[in-house]
């Protein structure tokens, strides 16, 4: 049991007797089914509770949080109460519960505000309870919960096989017998559009966790007690994720976060947050990226103004965005993989240190960031090479080769291995860059919480500042390796002037251009990296909050 159910029992209220289906319950169900107005009378009827009994219950729950008898609840009281109920503090439900209850935004929750939240939440929970209880017998059966998961966007793997079979054999009128579906099979799993999996065993654990008296069904009282203090909208997907979070601390020695929560929901959300952040920031800084690449490949003395004029001459405004479509195709998955891998490597390091939770330190962040950068860079490197070739292609009359033509020319004229030309210096550069960038950002963010915000949450300006410093620091440290990589990518391997590996690029650059040659394009690169990193982190943090990952 968890949440309000524990609080109610702690203040002296046991479980109410489970009601049998009655004509009254049929009447209330009919009201919901026909789309009629649902009021508190329906909730009281469902709970077989009088208005006076409900008043006493809500006041007792308020007093459970108000241990200091102040007459109001603040953040510390709500956090202490949720901690006493073993609701994990890292999901910040206390902050969200305060926000949703505090209607006048004065930082405290008076009893009437708490009461209004309870009214709204119980009505919300009643509506979704009735929507799941399709048999309208006053309880949710496991099969009804299963059906609700399907309707919320879940579908069986075998349904995907059916679709595939239909595409491959569109003229077939009937499906083969081996694609028939048995809802009771323990081999079948359901999977939703974002990759959450739930099998029969997990469904049984879900029901068992909410079902306080273990009779195999969920009454509205049990449903209410489980979700009453959940501050977000009670959708099926949110409820399932909430269960996955609280069950870790609520089932004793059997504590296991379901795989459908820990591996699949967060995977897709972290990937989505990283992809959106990367694509938005790269598009915003595309002109500076084009200028940087043009300057990097110049072996003579490079000047910014002439380079800008040449880009404008070749394609006017669109010339500054040449290769940006491919850039977004490259950066979106790269950013998604990098941020997700960073979160995963942090967990691995935390587990290796034997800490279930807590900070892994600056060194751990540096390692996690470097490994995440290496994984992401290796995964998207061919796209990076094609993007560089596209941006540095010398054309007459502003004509740019089609992407398909460019890729096929590289494949047939230089071989498949050409797509990974310059990977080594790229990895040597990206590992320290990503390590410094990600670790510096988190370290600076934590320092801002401690010294500037006094344990408050960083706002957009602080996030932008942390991203600016971390991005500039990482980019400057590894820039020489980036120049070497870009020159290896830009030159075709079947020319006399082509480089013979990373050491040859280093030697010839140092011989003909000196140390300054390794920093060509640094200024426009910083002009690009600083806003790019800032925008990336700002959007990533925003996406994490909106996707309930923070």
Briefly summarize what is shown.
By secondary structure, the chain is an all-alpha fold. It has 22 helices and 7 strands.
Structure description:
The protein is an all-alpha fold and 550 residues long. The chain contains 22 helices and seven strands. The strands form three sheets. A three-stranded antiparallel beta sheet has the order 4-5-6. The chain has a two-stranded antiparallel sheet with strand order 1-2. Strand 5 and strand 6 form a beta hairpin. The longest helix is centred in the last third of the chain and has 32 residues. The radius of gyration is 29 Å and the shape is elongated.
Present the secondary structure layout.
Elements: H1 4-10, H2 23-33, H3 40-47, H4 51-65, E1 72-73, H5 75-84, H6 93-101, E2 109-110, H7 111-132, E3 139-140, H8 142-151, E4 154-156, H9 157-168, E5 190-192, E6 197-198, H10 200-210, E7 218-219, H11 220-227, H12 236-246, H13 259-284, H14 286-296, H15 304-319, H16 324-352, H17 361-392, H18 403-414, H19 423-452, H20 460-490, H21 502-513, H22 522-546
Antiparallel strand pairs: 1-2, 3-7, 4-5, 5-6
Helix pairs in contact: 1-4, 1-11, 3-7, 5-6, 7-11, 12-13, 13-16, 13-22, 14-15, 14-22, 16-17, 17-19, 19-20, 20-22
């Amino acid at each position: 049991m968890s949440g309000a159910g524990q609080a109610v029992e702690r203040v002296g209220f046991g479980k109410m007797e489970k009601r049998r289906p009655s004509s009254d319950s049929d009447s209330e169900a009919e009201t919901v089914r026909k789309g009629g107005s649902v009021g508190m009378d329906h909730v009281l009827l469902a709970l077989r509770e009088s208005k006076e009994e409900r008043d006493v219950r809500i006041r007792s729950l308020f007093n459970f949080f108000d241990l200091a008898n102040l007459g109001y609840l603040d953040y510390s009281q709500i956090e202490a109460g949720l901690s006493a109920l073993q609701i994990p503090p890292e999901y910040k439900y206390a902050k969200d519960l305060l926000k949703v209850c505090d209607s006048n935004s004065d930082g405290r929750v008076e009893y009437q505000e708490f009461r209004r939240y309870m009214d709204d939440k119980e009505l919300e929970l009643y509506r979704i309870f009735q929507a799941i209880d399709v048999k309208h017998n006053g309880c949710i059966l496991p099969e009804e919960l299963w059906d609700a998961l399907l309707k919320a966007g879940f579908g069986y793997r075998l349904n995907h096989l059916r679709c595939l079979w239909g595409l491959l054999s569109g003229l077939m009128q009937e499906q083969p017998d081996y694609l028939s579906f048995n809802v009771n099979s323990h081999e079948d799993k359901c999977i939703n559009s974002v990759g959450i999996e739930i099998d029969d065993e997990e469904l049984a654990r879900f029901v068992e966790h909410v079902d306080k008296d273990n009779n195999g069904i969920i009454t509205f009282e049990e449903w209410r007690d489980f979700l009453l203090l959940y501050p977000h909208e009670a959708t099926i997907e949110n409820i399932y994720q909430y269960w996955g979070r609280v069950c870790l601390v609520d089932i004793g020695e059997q504590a296991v976060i379901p795989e459908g929560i820990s591996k699949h929901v967060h995977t897709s959300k972290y990937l989505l947050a990283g992809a959106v952040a990367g694509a938005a920031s790269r598009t915003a800084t595309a002109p500076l990226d084009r200028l940087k690449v043009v300057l990097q490949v110049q072996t003579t003395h490079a000047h910014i103004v002439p380079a800008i004029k040449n880009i404008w001459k070749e394609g006017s405004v669109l010339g500054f965005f040449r290769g940006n479509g491919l850039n977004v195709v490259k950066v979106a998955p790269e950013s998604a993989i990098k941020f997700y891998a960073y979160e995963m490597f942090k967990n691995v390091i935390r587990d290796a240190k034997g800490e279930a939770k807590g900070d892994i330190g600056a060194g751990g962040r540096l390692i996690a960031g470097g490994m995440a950068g290496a994984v992401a860079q290796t995964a998207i490197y061919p796209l990076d090479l094609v993007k560089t070739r596209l941006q540095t292609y010398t054309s007459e009359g502003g004509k740019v080769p089609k992407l398909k033509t460019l890729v096929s020319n590289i494949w047939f004229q230089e071989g498949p291995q050409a797509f990974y030309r310059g990977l080594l210096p790229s990895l040597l550069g990206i590992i320290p860059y990503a390590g410094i960038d990600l670790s510096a950002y988190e370290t600076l963010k934590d320092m801002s919480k401690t010294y500037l915000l006094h344990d408050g949450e960083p706002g957009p300006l602080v996030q932008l500042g942390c991203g600016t410093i971390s991005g500039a620091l990482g980019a400057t440290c590894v820039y020489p390796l980036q120049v070497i990589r870009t020159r290896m990518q830009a030159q075709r391997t079947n020319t006399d002037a082509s480089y013979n590996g990373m050491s040859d690029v280093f030697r010839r650059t140092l011989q003909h251009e000196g140390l300054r040659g390794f920093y060509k394009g640094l200024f426009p690169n910083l002009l690009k990296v600083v806003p790019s990193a800032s925008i990336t982190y700002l959007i990533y943090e925003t996406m994490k909050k909106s996707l309930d990952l923070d």
